C-alpha cells in the first residue's frame, strides 16, 4: 500500500506564474488535508477536502489559492500569480473516514520556490 | 503562546542519553499526536495519545498527557544518531480533523 504521494517534490516558479501541486491519498482514504510549512515553522492547516467537497477551507488565503479533490484523480492545490511569500513546503495528508481519533498520514511534501 | 508549542526549541545530547521534549496546548483536545521530520523531508507519525489516556509507549518512545495542565511530553530513551530530527506535537481539538502544530523541537544526537 503506497503512502501519500505528492508531486512534484520540488517546484520553481517565477513571480506571477501558476503553481499546481498534486496529492494522491493512500488507498482507501477519502479525506485529504493540505498544510503549509514556512521555514523554521510548524505546519499550518490550509484546507480539508473529501471527494468533490471542500469541508473546511478556513486556513486558505482568501485570494489566489484554491483546492479541489475530484471524483477521479488526485487532489490539486492551485496557487495563481505566485509571489515570493508563497515559497514554502506544502504537505498533503490523508485519512480514512473519520471515526473518532484518526491518524493522518503525510506525504513527502512539495517544496515551492518562487523566484 | 502558540497552541501545540514545544519546549525546548532545540536540544543537543549524546548518543545513549534520553531526550525529553514537552508540548503545551490551549484548548480541549480529542487527541495529541507526535511527529518526526527529518531535514527537508515529510512528517512521520510517531504516536497518538487520546485525551482519556495518560501514558503510552511505542518502542523507545514514551508519551505522557496531562489534560489538567494541557501538556504532553515525549521521551526518547537510549537515543541514537538516527533520531536527529525535528519533533512536532499536533493537537486535534474539537474539529477532530484539523491538526494544530507547534514550531517543533530540533533534536541533535551526537555520536
Description:
The complex is a heterodimer of chains A (115) and B (111). Chain A is mainly β and 115 residues long. Chain A has strands spanning 5-7, 10-13, 19-24, 31-37, 43-50, 53-56, 65-68, 75-79, 88-95, 105-106, 110-114. In chain A, the strands form two sheets. In chain A, strands 2, 4, 5, 6, 9, 10 and 11 form a seven-stranded mixed beta sheet that branches. The termini of chain A are far apart. In chain A, 35% of the residues are buried. The model of chain A has no long low-confidence stretch (mean pLDDT 91). Chain B has 111 residues and is mainly beta. Chain B is 0% helix and 56% strand. Chain B has no helices and eleven strands. Chain B has strands at 5-7, 10-14, 19-24, 31-37, 43-50, 55-58, 61-66, 71-76, 85-92, 99-101, 105-110. In chain B, the strands form two sheets. In chain B, strands 2, 4, 5, 9, 10 and 11 form a six-stranded mixed beta sheet that branches. Chain B starts with a strand and ends with a strand. The mean pLDDT of chain B is 89.
Which features does this protein show?
A: mainly beta, seven-stranded mixed beta sheet, four-stranded antiparallel beta sheet, 49% strand, globular, B: mainly beta, five-stranded antiparallel beta sheet, 11 strands
Strand content of chain B: over 45%
Q: Mean pLDDT of chain A, rounded to whole units?
A: 91
- The low-pLDDT segments of chain B are none
The percentage of residues in β strands of chain A lies in over 45%
In the predicted model, the low-confidence regions of chain A spanning at least 5 consecutive residues are: none
Oligomerization status of the protein chains: heterodimer
Mean pLDDT of chain B: 89
Amino acid at each position: 500500500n503506497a503512502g501519500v504521494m505528492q508531486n512534484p517534490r520540488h517546484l520553481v516558479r517565477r513571480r506571477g506564474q501558476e503553481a499546481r501541486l498534486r496529492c494522491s491519498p493512500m488507498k482507501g482514504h477519502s479525506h485529504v488535508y493540505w498544510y503549509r510549512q514556512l521555514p523554521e515553522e510548524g505546519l499550518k492547516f490550509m484546507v480539508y477536502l473529501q471527494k468533490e467537497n471542500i469541508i473546511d477551507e478556513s486556513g486558505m488565503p482568501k485570494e489566489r489559492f484554491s483546492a479541489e479533490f475530484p471524483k477521479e484523480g488526485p487532489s490539486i492545490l492551485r496557487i495563481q500569480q505566485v509571489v515570493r511569500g508563497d515559497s514554502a513546503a506544502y504537505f498533503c495528508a490523508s485519512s480514512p473516514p473519520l471515526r473518532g481519533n484518526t491518524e493522518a498520514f503525510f506525504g513527502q511534501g512539495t517544496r515551492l520556490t518562487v523566484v | 503562546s502558540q497552541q501545540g508549542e514545544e519546549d525546548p526549541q532545540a536540544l543537543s545530547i549524546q548518543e545513549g542519553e534520553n531526550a525529553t521534549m514537552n508540548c503545551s496546548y490551549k484548548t480541549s483536545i480529542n487527541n495529541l499526536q507526535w511527529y518526526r521530520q527529518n531535514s527537508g523531508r515529510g512528517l512521520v507519525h510517531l504516536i497518538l495519545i487520546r485525551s482519556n489516556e495518560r501514558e503510552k509507549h511505542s518502542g523507545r518512545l514514551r508519551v505522557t498527557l496531562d489534560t489538567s495542565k494541557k501538556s504532553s511530553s515525549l521521551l526518547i530513551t537510549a537515543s541514537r544518531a538516527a533520531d536527529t530530527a525535528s519533533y512536532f506535537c499536533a493537537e486535534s481539538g474539537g474539529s477532530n480533523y484539523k491538526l494544530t502544530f507547534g514550531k517543533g523541537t530540533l533534536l541533535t544526537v551526537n555520536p
